[in-house]
Write a structure and sequence with these properties.
Order of helices and strands: HEEEHHH
Largest sheet: 3 strands, antiparallel
Number of domains: 2
Oligomer: single chain
Strand content: 5-15%
Helix content: 25-40%
């Protein structure tokens, strides 16, 4: 069984949110952390709430990266996998269900073809920012949405 009583943890939190609905509005913030600016293929990000943690990321090999660290798409899928698994674990604990095994697998399709727009204004900084915004896979995925399908597979353990 779960080592943590999720129901006991969440009861006062739920009451606080009923008493003060604004308390449930949480703002998460992540910022880039110190990285070698001479290396355009790698970066690091840091959650503001946990400043001693940073996530390394880099360009995917399909766009010229080295493949030595997760790309931003990997981080996005990892966030979804972590959310799904944590949610399943917490709900199971709340329901008193003992999990024998749990595997979450997330996959996504990505088209790496890009086109370079004409430099209309001739200002390098403006072009850089517009291009970065245009080609940011994660930003555009969040903006445009993606079809999402869930598939759950349950296996009975042999007793």
């Amino acid at each position: 069984m779960a080592r943590v009583n999720v129901r006991d943890l969440q009861t006062p939190i739920r009451q606080r949110y009923r008493d003060d609905p604004q308390a449930a509005q949480i703002r998460l913030k992540v910022r880039s952390s110190q990285a070698d600016l001479t290396d355009p293929l790698h970066c690091a990000a840091q959650p503001v709430s946990i400043p001693n943690i940073s996530w390394l990321s880099g360009a995917h090999p399909a766009v010229g990266g080295t493949g030595d660290v997760p790309c931003s798409g990997d981080l996005l899928l990892g966030a979804l996998a972590a959310c799904q698994e944590t949610t399943i674990r917490m709900v199971a604990a709340n329901m008193g269900i003992e999990l024998a095994a749990l595997e979450v697998e997330i996959e996504a399709d990505w088209d790496t073809r890009v086109t370079v727009p004409q430099d209309v204004k001739g200002e390098r900084a403006d072009r850089l920012l517009r291009s970065a915004e245009k080609y940011c896979v994660v930003l555009n995925t969040l903006r445009n949405g993606v079809p999402v399908a869930s598939d759950f597979s349950l296996r009975q353990l042999e007793v």
